[in-house]
Write a structure and sequence with these properties.
Length: about 130
């Protein structure tokens, strides 16, 4: 039970931090997210643990990735990435669609480079095997 309470506090603190970063009041976020002011306050204080649907509404109000909130809430595992993917996901000036397109392009370049690297080393390995 303590772990659930910790997750509730963690997600609440994360939402508060994101709200403060966006310079949005609790009242403004409650309107943007379509969530009552008292309920949002309880979430931020860790008294309530929001559902995935409520997290999605809050993410939309904050203009951040719902995935980021799901990870913080323990609904999703931390996505594998690195500094580039983390930066893209954290960018508040991009829409979710733009972020996904950038991530797809970035990953396709990485995959292409891995395939080229593998192709370049394979003939070398085959010739060594013949010797």
């Amino acid at each position: 039970m303590d772990k659930v309470a910790d997750i509730g506090r963690d997600i609440g603190a994360y939402i508060r931090q994101q709200r403060n970063n966006a310079k949005i009041s609790l009242r403004q976020l409650s309107k943007l997210a379509g969530v009552s002011n008292p309920y949002l306050s309880q979430i931020e204080r860790g008294v309530r643990k929001p559902s995935a649907e409520i997290l999605q509404q809050i993410a939309k109000g904050l203009r951040i990735s719902a995935e980021a909130l799901y990870v913080q809430a323990g609904i999703l595992d931390l996505p594998v990435g690195g500094p580039v993917t983390d930066a893209i996901r954290a960018d508040t000036e991009l829409t979710e669609r733009q972020k996904q397109v950038l991530l797809d392009v970035y990953e396709s370049f990485r995959r292409q480079n891995r395939e080229a690297e593998t192709s370049a080393t394979e003939p070398e390995s085959e010739s060594q095997a013949k010797e």
